[in-house]
Amino acid sequence: MSEPSKTSWDPNAGLTLFGRKPALEALLDPSLTIHCLHLADSNRPAGIIAQITAEAERRGAEIRYHDRLALSHISKNGRQDQGVALDVVCPQFTSLSTFLDRSSAPQRVLALDGVTNPQNVGMIIRSAVAAGIDGILYPKRGIASMGPLVIKASAGNLFKAPIIRCETVVEALEKLRSHGYRVAALEANGEQSLFELNVEGSMVCVLGGETEGISPAVQALVDSRLSIPMAHGVESLNVAVTAALVAFHIKKPPA
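The chain above was modelled as a monomer; its predicted structure follows.
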């Protein structure tokens, strides 16, 4: 895949990885487009650092050197970046405003409200991509960051996921509602079965955190409260399992 020109980095257009092994794995993946490799100038130019540098040069990626403080601002994780950060272009990543501007047909979106376990987030992303979900609202805070654990749990599908960057879930839901989206939330005691939901039109389904569930601020914006019927006294499902059921249900063609 061809490399992008050396222009300024738009954080809405991709993902900045950190860590030596994740960076090398990304550089070795021919399906990924690399924007820039960032290295701490204190790294010893040997071993895996030499491999990373050589692979970036082979791919024609820009290489920039920084002091450790500057690099930590880029990686957003100075304790774990190991002196390496890598900007990867993700074509399906976008901002909320751009998503709304280019959307015409009915869209089906998932929103993550306080889902902090990276394994769960990664598995949700994998299911959403498999189901063909049109967008995944990903706020800047209150959710697991897009680090190595999320990438691994997504089986690499994060790079091609339709991630919609937003400041907060509440702000994004308000904007989506103003554009005609219905908002549904999955709750243990939701009054309507997920499988009775009318899936026509544009909608967003909210998945709450593992322990706290849907936040009160998001609750105030919900139009439908959904639950998944369960047998044998089972009270709840893991949020990633719930997300898979939701994703495949709301993307099915209307009856």
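The two ends are 40 Å apart (CA to CA).
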